[in-house]
Amino acid sequence: EAPVDAAFLRRWLESATAAVEREAPRLTELDSPIGDADHGTNMRRGFLAARTAVEQEPPPTPGGVLVLIGRTLISTVGGASGPLYGTLLRRAGKELGEEQAVSAARLRDALRAGVDGVATLGGAVPGDKTMLDALLPAVDALTGALDAGGGAADALAAAAAAADEGAAATVPMRARKGRASYLGERSIGHQDPGATSSALLVTALADTARG
Ligand code: ADP
Ligand code: MG
Ligand code: MG
């Protein structure tokens, strides 16, 4: 299997940015009834800036690519999602250190650390109707598939399916964190925008691994 190197994560960034651009109207639409209708705009701004930053000065290591994307999201996205996704990617990148290429298992451990960083920063737990409801099942599925001896591409495909299911499962949840929580009961019946964008990002990772 192809190792996870800087080129792999640059291809992921291309694919993720394309997905965010394509789905930005839908992400903003999901953020209308239970938020402030800017999630697609926020994600689009952040990922376009990250792509530019990485193109201008491509980091030589996979960790460096993730740290640069994370830093750029934090500095360009005003909404809650910027610091949260920024923390995820920066933390994951730092976990990868200076290595030129890492295994899928190392990537999984780094993503787990990044998602833990999101939980610490945002204080959300599973069931709170946030991006964590897609991210945690994705990391769990990735772990399960790799532990069962699956290859990286299949394991990432399982993670993407779990993230999609996790995003869909936010519909009946009542939001307990972020803007949507201000709505209380009225947040029920809508899919969380951040969980939806998380599923897009994990799907882009699976697509990148499939090649
Ligand atoms: P804002 O709410 O500031 O406008 P966005 O619309 O870009 O920011 O992002 C909203 C998304 O951020 C939500 O759908 C949710 O998934 C996520 N989110 C908000 N607060 C938290 C939190 N405390 N922990 C985890 N995720 C959160
Ligand atoms: Mg918003
Ligand atoms: Mg906002």
Write up what this structure looks like.
There is one protein chain. The protein is mainly alpha-helical and 211 residues long. The chain has a two-stranded antiparallel ribbon with strand order 1-2. The chain has one domain (4-210): DhaL domain (Serine Threonine Protein Phosphatase 5, Tetratricopeptide repeat), CATH 1.25.40.340. The protein is built from 8 helices and 2 strands; from the N terminus they run βααααβαααα. The model has no long low-confidence stretch (mean pLDDT 97). Helix 1 runs parallel beside helix 3 (62-76), helix 3 runs antiparallel to helix 4 and helix 6 packs parallel to helix 8. It binds adenosine-5'-diphosphate and magnesium ion (MG) (2 copies).
